[in-house]
Amino acid sequence: MLSTNLNRKLKQAAGSLTFVAALLTASVTANAQDLGWPEKEELKFGFIKLTDMAPLAVAYEKGYFEDEGLYVTLEAQANWKVLLDRVIDGQLDGAHMLAGQPLGATIGFGTQSHIITAFSMDLNGNGITVSNDVWAEMKKHIPHENGQPVHPIKADYLKPVVDSYKNAGKPFKMGMVFPVSTHNYELRYWLAAGGIHPGYYAPHKGDTSGQIDAQALLSVTPPPQMPATMEAGTIYGYCVGEPWNQQAVFKGIGVPVITDYEIWKNNPEKVFGVSKRWAEENPNTHIRVVKAMIRAAMWLDANNNANRPEAVKILAKSSYVGADEDVIANSMTGTFEYEKGDKRDVPDFNVFFRHNATYPYYSDAIWYLTQMRRWGQIAEPKSDDWFMQTAKNVYRPDIYTQAAKALIAEGLADPKDFPDFDSETGFKPPQTEFIDDVTFDGTKPNAYLEQFSIGLKGDTVL
Description:
Layout: H1 4-35, E1 42-47, H2 54-61, H3 64-67, E2 71-76, H4 80-88, E3 94-98, H5 100-107, E4 115-120, E5 123-124, E6 126-131, H6 132-138, E7 144-145, E8 148-149, H7 159-167, E9 173-176, H8 182-193, E10 200-202, E11 207-212, E12 217-220, H9 226-231, E13 237-241, H10 244-251, E14 254-259, H11 260-263, E15 270-275, H12 276-281, H13 283-305, H14 308-315, H15 325-332, E16 335-337, E17 343-345, E18 350-351, H16 362-374, H17 384-394, H18 397-409, H19 445-449
Parallel strand pairs: 1-2, 1-3, 9-12
Antiparallel strand pairs: 3-15, 4-15, 5-18, 6-13, 6-14, 7-8, 10-11, 16-17
Helix pairs in contact: 2-13, 5-17, 13-18, 14-15, 16-17
């Protein structure tokens, strides 16, 4: 039998727990009344094993999804195509996606399905790596200071190597992760800026190889397989997200020569994508998902990246990225290692919340669409109005704004950390910090394309 004193303490504890539960219920109920209850509580989201899936992992591990009344399962996918197909057919409620995937699917390149995004997952985070043999040849052409290569390293220094392969009758092969990936467009941009033609697509002719007129042949390789594929000699370099560039350094099989931060400073990388139908059927759920992911992004960048070591431990789990902590930390904590021992400070290599990283800008969407046009994935000329309307069909800052305002109202976020929603147009000011010094103005996509000597533009059709 319980003592009287113990019995009294248990009753007091039970009363306290009931009171706390009542407060929590009242809070959740008030929150639900403001936004509306989630239409769907049990959700499954897909991702690829890359460090930029971090907002999903953190939202799960820190309980931000549960705070929104959502019970989420995160599931690694075999490749980007499988991931997209599973979002389209409803096996996944949403997913970590390449920024070009919702756009490519919506306009019907490869797969036809209306996908939208209301959340940009990160800025930067990619690199271009070459094999040791290619690096040894490139180094002969690269300026050095104090015994180290001068950065950024342009593709101008790769061109003599590519030319030597061509003269020997040997194709120069490189890997990227998917035809509508950031990596494909960044690699093409870098190569073309150095006078190396990366090839055209001609879907209207049934040619989706992307290798028409190419001086460097680009092909798809899943991210985790990049280092082994290069080590086997199947490709001589690649563009991929972390940790697969740093993995090449740790294994001693290659050298990352440039980050995407140096190709286009603070470029948008991944997005969170859902089908338009899912978004229409689950509007409250969608806003709550975005709320949780904004909180995760805030946590990842808080206090000058103070939480990154903890984030590295989370991402190293086999259920997420599954790479060694040291490999992930090499870029996730503000540094990037190029040639072995040449570790440099790149504090913004991975950005999750700073610089309005989570806001889905129309101008970001339009840049990707210009690259699709430049390389023939969009075969026919398109008007500036078409670029604008397509961006608005896919990128949904209106949904993002509802989520952000709810967090501000709940005291979980500060208005100064977001764009001014009353005046925001969805267009960044003209951007000048590209490796070739070409200025991008998202309001003038066709004028932008006219600036390039390599690539389709105007009325050109293959």
